[in-house]
Structures are given as structure tokens and as C-alpha cells.
Model the fold of this input.
Amino acid sequence: MLNLLPKDHFQVNADKYQANRYTKHFTAWNQLTVNLYAQASGKNSLRDTVTGFSVHQGCWYHLGLENVARSTISYANANRNFALYEDTFYDLLERCKDITPKHRFKFKNPLYALDATVIDLCLSVFPWAKFRKTKGALKIHSLLDYRGTIPSFLVVTNAKQHDVKVAKESSLPLSSDSILAVDKAYIDFQWLYGLSTRGVCFVTRAKDNMNYQVVGQQKEPKNKAVVSDETIRLIGPLTSRKYPEDLRLVTYYDQKENKILKFITNNFHLAAATIAAIYKARWEIEIFFKWIKQNLKIKTFLGTSRNAVLTQIWTAMIYYLLLAYIKYQTKYGYALLHFTRVIKEALFKRVDIIDLLNLSPGKLQKLREPCYQATLF
Done:
């Protein structure tokens, strides 16, 4: 698995951040190796990680490790710049983009969802992450690409940062033909107008107090769930200046939830039912956040400093991309969760990943090391 990482790029970035300066044995690559092992094996503490490595001491040479000590790992996580692992994430992301499958919609435009999730922290242990009076937290902002359900952009901030403020201050990698789905938290008409002038289409829910007037009608919708499809213009004293052009308002009846939903978009070409389906597909990013919280180690941390926490978060996302890369490159048919369980059980087995993925449960038994322990009477 380590061979799949862009090691040349990693070394360039390590030199850039002087990550190996004054280092004799435990290099930045060794640190990444140990932290990836902690992610893949689900370790909850440094002591647990070191104990796991000590069992496989015969493999240290092949991993380029000379020593694995709690104090060494703790010091590296606390002091080695986390930006090195952030850059590694984006280097690996470039490889993943070329092999991800297409999204399920018929149109060819790139489709994204933008949202954020909160990682709760204990304020007494992480005092630098103060969120409320008695609560600490971080917030992960992610731009999810529907092709392969992989994050194409990530920002980790303190939990006080508003979602739309981070979006306005970030350079989102959106091409001029992209479609972006966001929820109500991102309704800032000045920012939405900036997206529109770049050629980016957006789909979001309309707020109940939105002040507008109807200036036209779209074609009569074929889908009976579409109540109306109108062209509107904002008439609020501030919103009309922030977004001076026409918008499209789609009113849709969700039979499953028994609700009337209103969506606003600057896309006047797609069918009204497709606009509603795009917003509904935004739920994929909620599933993504739920998955990484349940299956990656981003809720319990091996260190308490800000640098150690961010290092672990970026390492977790590197591991996620590794799993996605292998899954799509090999066209693995099972779910990503099943794949993580297979990898966890076979981390130190001498077997190629391709062979491992093709093995049946019966053949997996043959991979076990022979047991020479004497029989007890």
C-alpha cells in the first residue's frame, strides 16, 4: 500500500518543510507509515500503536523503520508540520481523479457538494480548540466530488468559522461547467453571484423569508411532482444588489416526506425534476462524513496539540484516498467498509493486494502462518 503513495513528491514536500531536519532515525516517511498503520488497524492510543508494531518487529526493516517509541512518535506528531501530509493528500488526489467512475446523472457536467461537519473535542484536553464555554470542536469543510465520492478539497478550521465564510475565503477547484449543491447555510447571494459569473451552476434550498417577484415561467414540467417552475428576481434592498440577475425557483413535492420543497438555481437548462434530484443527491456528503467518523480515527486522537490532531486528520484522509484508489483501480465489487476490514486483517501478510482482493473466505484460511506450538494435554 505504501508503494501506491507518490514517494518522490513526498520527499520534495519534506524538503520544502524541512521535515527531516535534525532527524537521525524517525523520518517524516516513518511517521506517515506509523500513522497509516494506526488508521488501518484502528488503534486508539500511542501505546496501542507501539504494542501492535512490536508484535511485527520482523517487518520493520522492510518498512524502513529502526525504532518505534511512544515518545518519538508523540514528538513528531506534535512538532513536524502537518502541512506536509496535507500536500501528500492533494498529490494522491491527482492520481485518484483519473480513475474515478462517473456520477449517476445523464449530464456530463462535474457535480459537487459542499458542506461541513463538526468534530467534538474535550475542552480540558484540547484548550486550543475552544468552541463554546464548555465545549471544544473542529470543523472539516469538504467539497465532495460525485465521481467516486472522494473529497476534492478539504479545509480544517475551528468550529466557530461559519460555513459560507470559509467557502468565500477558499479557492474551490470548480471548473466553469461545474454544478454545485449546497444547503441553506451557504446562501450568501454575493458569493452565489460570484459563482455564477465564473460559469458555475449552483442548486440550493430557498429560505422561507426570501423576498422576490416572479418575472416568467419555464416550460411546463413533465414530472407531476414538480408543482411550479418559475423565473424570479430578488427585490430585497440588499439581495437585489448582491444578485442582480434572474434566478430559477423550482417548487417540488416530496411524496416520501410529504413536504413542499423550494430550490433556487442559476441553471435554466436542466429539467426541474433533475434540479430536485441534484439537491437530493447532496445527501452523499452527509454519508461521507458519517463514514469517515465511524471508520477512520478522527474522533479519538494520538496527541493533544493542534499539529498532532491535524496530522492525524490529514493522515486519515490519505488512507481514505488510498482505499478509494485501490477500489477503483481494481474495480473491487464490494463496499469500501468490507475492504477496510480485509486490509485490517491482512496488514502484515505477505500477499499482493490484487491477490488479496480476489481471494474467497476459504482461500484466505490458507494464508495463515503455520502454527508450530506444541499441543497442550
Remarks:
- The chain has two domains: 2-90+300-350, 99-289.
- The beta strands are 111-121, 130-132, 135-145, 150-158, 179-181, 201-205, 212-217, 226-234, 247-254, 259-265.
